[in-house]
Design brief:
Rossmann fold
Length: 155
């Protein structure tokens, strides 16, 4: 069909900002490795990748807003892990980070890929950051290049 718009995975011209939470560092590091592999597979120039490390998932929306407003990035990727604990803290952090990231994307028009795992336990996070369910970070890298492509075609 001629009336279908799809993203491509050639990221050779893409400028990518990555915001990664340092909390649950083992998980975040694995997600980042997966993302960088995907970006490499999509031919993104290493010089066009900028990484910002923040303390936790709650801090991700602010940095994504600052990066989006710089007009230097075609797409942003947010990575991290919020793992349910014994208190309600999980609910607040997961909800606020997701809502904040979504709001930034809608307000700025910059595609932002949500790669913050929200899991019930550590094993689920391990399984999704390079374990038996693959690496969500890799999936986010591919999605980022596709969304960058789609967004540029809609401009």
């Amino acid at each position: 069909m001629n009336n279908v718009l799809e993203g491509h995975i050639d990221g050779s011209a893409s400028r990518v900002g990555i915001i990664v939470s340092e909390f649950n560092e083992v998980i975040s590091t694995n997600l980042l490795k997966g993302t960088l592999k995907a970006l490499n597979d999509c031919n993104v120039n290493e010089k066009n990748i900028f990484i910002v490390k923040v303390p936790g998932a709650f801090e991700v929306p602010l940095v994504s807003l600052r990066l989006a407003n710089k007009n230097e990035y075609d797409v942003l990727i947010c990575l991290g892990a919020v793992i349910r604990g014994e208190t309600g803290h999980y609910d607040f952090v997961a909800s606020e980070s997701a809502g904040g990231i979504s709001k930034v994307s809608l307000e700025t028009g910059v595609p932002i890929i949500f790669g913050i795992l929200t899991t019930d336990n550590l094993q689920q996070a391990i399984d999704r950051s390079g374990g038996k369910y693959g690496n969500k970070g890799y999936d986010c890298g591919i999605a980022a290049i596709k969304m960058s492509s789609i967004n540029s075609k809609l401009s």
